[in-house]
């Protein structure tokens, strides 16, 4: 009986007894991507790596866009909501030294016609107007024409808003027409050449009709 007892004590644990003996140790090859430094990488850390990799291009693109807006050519927005080109200095638009002037009075730039409803609550009345601007001969015609063409939406917007504030009585007679010319002259010079000498010499009516 003692011999049988010793044999029973030396009996090796069977496969079914592994759970009692402790968990089986699992080894992972050193090159396994799921491990880092011989340790199994947590699942959350793996996802965090992919999130960082995906976020880097987005952050770089946003930084590049912001830098481009900061360093790129600027544009200004008028109080009426019209975006206009950055105003060049008068020295940049000036006629080159020694260049012969075409005339002593200046040269002309046409503003496209606009149509605006008049400020008449009791009736629907509107005005159609087209202007011609006389520009100082001190400015280079080619460069200044390009500048004015780029700001044509601003000029039309200023003219439309101004006309829409007028009544029929405010537009009758040559005295009122001269007043409109002077007020638009001041408005255009203030917006196009702020802080400098007025470069628009006259505002002329090319077309003016009230209906």
What would the average pLDDT be, to the nearest integer? 75
Described by the principal axes of the CA atoms, the overall outline is: flat
Radius of gyration: 41 Å
CATH superfamily of the largest domain: Band 7 domain
CATH topology of the largest domain, anyone? Answer: Tetrahydropterin Synthase, Chain A
Number of strands: 7
- Strand content bin: 15-25%
What would the keywords be for this entry?
Tetrahydropterin Synthase, Chain A, alpha+beta, three-stranded antiparallel sheet, two-stranded antiparallel sheet, 211 residues, 20% strand
Please tell me about this protein's structure.
By secondary structure, this protein is an alpha+beta fold. 42% of the residues lie in helices and 20% in strands. Strand 5 (107-117) and strand 6 (126-135) form a beta hairpin. The longest helix has 29 residues, at 43-71. The N and C termini lie far apart (130 Å).
């Amino acid at each position: 009986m003692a011999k049988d007892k010793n044999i029973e004590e030396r009996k090796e644990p069977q496969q079914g007894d592994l759970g009692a003996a402790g968990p089986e140790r699992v080894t992972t090859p050193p090159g396994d991507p799921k491990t880092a430094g011989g340790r199994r990488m947590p699942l959350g850390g793996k996802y965090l790596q992919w999130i960082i990799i995906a976020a880097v291009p987005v952050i770089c693109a946003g930084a590049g866009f912001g830098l481009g807006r900061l360093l790129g050519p600027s544009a200004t927005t008028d109080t009426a909501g019209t975006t206009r080109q950055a105003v060049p200095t008068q020295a940049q638009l000036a006629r080159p030294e020694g260049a012969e002037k075409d005339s002593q009075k200046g040269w002309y730039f046409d503003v496209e016609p606009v149509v605006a409803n008049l400020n008449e609550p009791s009736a629907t009345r509107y005005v159609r107007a087209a202007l011609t601007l006389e520009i100082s001969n001190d400015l280079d015609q080619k460069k200044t024409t390009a500048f004015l063409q780029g700001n044509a939406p601003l000029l039309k917007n200023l003219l439309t808003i101004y006309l829409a504030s007028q009544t029929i009585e405010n537009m009758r007679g040559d005295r009122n027409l001269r007043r409109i010319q002077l007020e638009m002259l001041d408005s255009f010079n203030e917006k196009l050449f702020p802080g400098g000498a007025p470069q628009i010499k006259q505002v002329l009516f090319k077309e003016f009709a009230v209906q």
